[in-house]
UniProtKB/TrEMBL annotation:
This is Acyl-CoA desaturase. The keyword Methyltransferase does not apply. It comes from Lasiosphaeria ovina. Its main location: membrane. It comes from the Eukaryota. Its EC number is 1.14.19.1. Stearoyl-CoA desaturase that utilizes O(2) and electrons from reduced cytochrome b5 to introduce the first double bond into saturated fatty acyl-CoA substrates. The keyword Lipid biosynthesis applies. Gene3D superfamilies: Cytochrome b5-like heme/steroid binding domain (3.10.120.10). SMART domains: Cyt-b5 (SM01117). Expected to bind 2 Fe(2+) ions per subunit. Its cofactor is Fe(2+).
């Protein structure tokens, strides 16, 4: 379409500050050269598709650690240290890489930034600069081809496949990381990444356990390698599990989901549907009882004067989003129910034809100008066969609405499924209009699927004003 393509051109030309990703360590990748990912994987070239550096760090090294753990006894002090160091590295990713650098959901003082960059290096998941660039692309292009870890390519791909296999740099959406290039901590960590990893992920745990209680090997295996393995697998779940398992209370158009299991695994990053809707909020869990230790840590740092400018979305906007999603679910549910043929789609029948058809054996009853075929219902009528049969071929508006019995909302609902026509010049239109002017609840509004919303007590057959019945006359 011409209009949408011109909108696309406009969007392309819009100066949104995106920059080509410039690697600070290696030579700039030549974008003109064909990339290996443009060739299909075959038996001859599969090893060229593998990112061997990443594979070594996230598969081979952890495997070696797991095997060697068999011969290395685990000491209590080393176990406690490994768990504590796990949280340190985890917060480096969740509070540092994710909420501070990728989303700038708060500001951190220099000592806290150094602490978080050190923790991030201990987790061995790439530099903060590289990680944030991909993560911003993930938010901007969620579930599309430009999403670096789109769950649409499979759970395993979003978890680990995107790192184990080489990525075409042209495919990943471009993002603006000029702010990160101005943070000296981010730039230093990026330039000295390998050194940072060796020191923070392996040397520190080994020396800490070795010098403090003589367990060098345990520190290396449990505090280093196995702890890296666990923190990697846990935080990778933000890209996989958080896009696969759970509810979507804020928006169900894309894959992000909320689940407490994901939250437990990822230091509170499991409320991912909320997070994708409100990404610059420093919280992922908004209820006090939900598990979000990353949020608690940021809050404590704020009390210590290390973090400031914590961003939150207005509660009004959050509740609006929640309500709209709820409404959408209601609309979907509404479409699955039988509400009868819409009044405007019913054939118009004259009074004489109505009477004639009723005499010819049709069990037609007119109520509020709407003709209903009650034939199949006569035997089941709770008020007995006689009353309903007596109404056939007649206008039963008054007796249905209180003349004999003031029928329930459920009865009006059931009646609406029996509609077959409207009376020409019947009082339906007048009654509908009058009901609307008298009762503000009765508005002919449609839901997002185009269906008329019929609230309790507002069926067209319900007459709110007492109608003079034949008996009263
Ligand atoms: Zn996500
Ligand atoms: Zn995010």
């Amino acid at each position: 379409m011409a209009s949408s393509s011109s909108a696309y051109v406009q969007a392309e030309a819009f100066p949104d500050g995106v920059t080509e990703y410039v690697p600070l360590r290696n030579k700039k990748y030549d974008m003109r050269k064909p990339h290996i990912t443009e060739q299909p994987i075959t038996l001859k070239n599969w090893y060229q598709h593998v990112n061997w550096l990443n594979t070594t760090f996230i598969i081979f090294v952890p495997l070696m650690g797991t095997v060697s753990a068999y011969w290395v006894p685990l000491h209590m002090k080393t176990a406690i240290f490994a768990v504590a160091y796990y949280y340190f590295a985890g917060l480096g990713i969740t509070a540092g890489y994710h909420r501070l650098w990728a989303h700038t959901s708060y500001k951190a003082s220099l000592p806290l930034r150094i602490f978080l960059a050190a923790g991030g290096a201990a987790a061995v998941e790439g530099s903060a600069r590289w990680w944030s660039r991909d993560h911003r692309a993930h938010h901007r292009y969620t579930d599309t081809e430009k999403d670096p870890y789109s769950v649409r390519k499979g759970l395993l791909y979003s978890h680990i496949g995107w790192m184990v296999m080489k990525q075409n740099p042209r495919r990943i959406g471009r993002t603006d990381i000029s702010d990160l290039n101005e943070d000296p901590v981010v730039v230093w960590q990026h330039r000295n990444y390998l050194k940072s990893v060796i020191v923070m992920a392996l040397v520190v745990p080994t020396l800490a356990c070795g010098l403090l209680w003589g367990d060098f090997l345990g520190g290396f295996i449990y505090g280093g390698i196995l702890r890296i393995f666990f923190i990697q697998q846990a935080t990778f779940c933000v890209n996989s599990l958080a896009h696969w398992l759970g509810d979507q209370p804020f928006d169900d158009r894309n894959s992000p989901r909320d689940h407490v299991i994901t939250a437990f695994v990822t230091l509170g990053e499991g409320y991912h549907n909320f997070h994708h809707e409100f990404p610059s909020d420093f919280r992922n869990a908004i209820e006090w009882w939900q598990y979000d230790p990353t949020k608690w840590a940021i809050w404590i740092w704020k009390q210590m004067g290390l973090a400031y400018n914590l961003k939150t979305f207005p509660q009004n906007e959050i509740e609006k989003g929640r309500l709209q999603q709820l409404q959408k679910k209601l609309d979907q549910k509404r479409t699955t129910l039988d509400w009868g043929i819409p009044l405007e789609n019913l054939p118009v029948v004259s009074w004489d034809d109505f009477v004639a058809e009723s005499k010819n054996g049709k069990a037609w009853v007119a109520i509020a100008g709407v003709i209903h075929d009650v034939g199949k219902f006569i035997a089941d009528h709770p008020g007995g066969k006689a009353l309903i049969s007596a109404a056939v071929g007649k206008d039963a508006t008054a007796i249905f609405n209180g003349g004999v019995y003031d029928h329930s909302n459920a009865a009006h609902n059931l009646l609406s499924t029996m509609r077959v026509g409207v009376l020409r010049g019947g009082c339906e239109v007048e009654i509908w209009k009058r009901a609307q002017s008298e009762n503000k609840d009765v508005a002919a509004i449609n839901d997002s699927t185009g269906q008329r919303i019929v609230r309790a007590g507002t069926q067209a057959t319900r007459v709110t004003q007492p109608v003079a019945s034949a008996d009263a006359a």
